[in-house]
User: Which sequence fits this backbone?
């Protein structure tokens, strides 16, 4: 049987783009056999053509202007690996889809911000917009939701979606090191970028969660989301969590409750006995609750050239097979605009820590503020440091409205006995 050919342009040749190019060259034959279609990289483009790379590229394949790939009649598929929600990446993907080119991307920021618009353009032009690599790297969650779990009504998706933050938290725990030490080490190992802000402040997870929510609930992407990062976590919080039988993880959670969708990203105290607590290092894990399947768990490497290339090749293979499908599983005409809510009225048990001057009356004042805000105390631990004349007070609460927990923080942080900004970490995945 004569095999067809799919002409590909790779735009962006950083670590991932270079690895993908090399992979496709080495594995062209086996991919052709599996898909009955030959993947052929005919063009590449990058900001710096002269940068040293561990790949050899024929000069004829280089495009001076990356946008030429969107106009070329020879190009069938464009792989966008520029990154970022604006600028060159945005221009490339919008133009590619409008010119009837398939698009494969690892750009979570772009999909989270413009996914709804891009999916409509892809549908209008009968081309694919594939973004498996945009969420959790080598964890095949997007294809699982589109195909493997298509029979299920999903009511909840949650998990660990960022390998950098997970590595930092688990290393702080295992190696008894502080946040700055571990972050520097993560950067030296290549687990964290030189500017790791989006990993640390929760925005990376938020982008991924928005995409997953849309797929799980057949809805348009909604930006109503509560976001906190791990940059507020101290070594003392890790130690306290251990003593209390918990681990701290940065979780992304999206769930439907009473026909309302809640999306949140924040550090969470998880019982050591739970599955999600065992996910350490740079691993990611996605847990999907649905009917009739029940709970489905997928874990794997969340980032890096190898894991990302695995996801990119999966998307390319789907196009090689001629599978034209809706980017978000169903037509844009059928997707819903659901009611997304903040978490102020959600109930959580919580860990609160106060660093205070060690003097008479402080503890009494703190407990009065809890009572005034109708938050019940489950457990209270006081650790005085007599040499430095301060005390660390840890409070574990019963389930309380989130807005009341935050109200307590705001009221107490204004008190003259407070030494450092108080901490609030929610407990469990409820």
Assistant:
């Amino acid at each position: 049987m004569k095999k067809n050919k799919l002409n590909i342009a790779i735009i962006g040749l950083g670590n991932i783009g270079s690895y993908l190019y090399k992979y496709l060259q080495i594995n062209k034959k086996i991919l052709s056999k599996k898909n009955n279609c030959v993947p052929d990289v005919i063009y590449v483009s990058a900001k710096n053509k002269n940068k040293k790379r561990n790949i050899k590229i024929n000069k004829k394949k280089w495009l001076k202007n990356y946008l030429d790939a969107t106009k070329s009649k020879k190009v069938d598929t464009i792989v966008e690996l520029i990154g970022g929600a604006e600028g060159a990446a945005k221009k490339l993907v919008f133009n590619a889809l409008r010119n009837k080119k398939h698009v494969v991307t690892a750009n979570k920021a772009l999909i989270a911000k413009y996914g709804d618009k891009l999916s409509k353009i892809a549908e209008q032009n009968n081309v694919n917009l594939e973004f498996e690599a945009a969420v959790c790297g080598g964890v095949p969650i997007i294809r699982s939701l589109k195909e493997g779990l298509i029979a299920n009504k999903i009511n909840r998706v949650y998990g660990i979606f960022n390998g950098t933050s997970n590595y930092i938290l688990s290393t702080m725990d295992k190696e008894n090191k502080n946040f700055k030490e571990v972050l520097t080490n993560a950067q030296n190992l290549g687990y964290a970028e030189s500017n790791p802000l989006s990993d640390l402040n929760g925005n990376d997870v938020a982008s991924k969660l928005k995409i997953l929510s849309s797929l799980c609930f057949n809805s348009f992407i909604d930006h109503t989301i509560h976001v906190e990062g791990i940059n507020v976590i101290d070594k003392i919080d890790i130690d306290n969590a251990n003593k209390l039988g918990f681990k701290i993880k940065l979780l992304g959670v999206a769930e439907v409750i009473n026909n309302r969708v809640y999306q949140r990203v924040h550090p969470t105290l998880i019982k050591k006995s739970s599955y999600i607590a065992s996910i350490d290092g740079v691993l990611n894990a996605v847990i999907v609750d649905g009917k009739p399947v029940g709970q489905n768990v997928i874990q794997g490497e969340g980032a890096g050239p190898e894991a990302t290339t695995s996801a990119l090749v999966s998307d390319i293979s789907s196009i090689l097979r001629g599978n034209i499908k809706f980017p978000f599983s169903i037509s844009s005409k059928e997707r819903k605009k659901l009611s997304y809510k903040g978490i102020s009225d959600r109930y959580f048990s919580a860990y609160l820590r106060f660093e205070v001057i060690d003097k008479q009356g402080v503890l009494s004042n703190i407990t009065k503020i809890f009572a005034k805000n109708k938050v019940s105390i489950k457990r209270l631990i006081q650790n005085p440091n007599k040499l430095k004349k301060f005390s660390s007070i840890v409070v574990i609460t019963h389930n309380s409205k989130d807005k009341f927990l935050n109200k307590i923080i705001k009221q107490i942080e204004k008190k003259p006995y407070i030494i450092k900004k108080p901490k609030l970490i929610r407990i469990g995945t409820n």
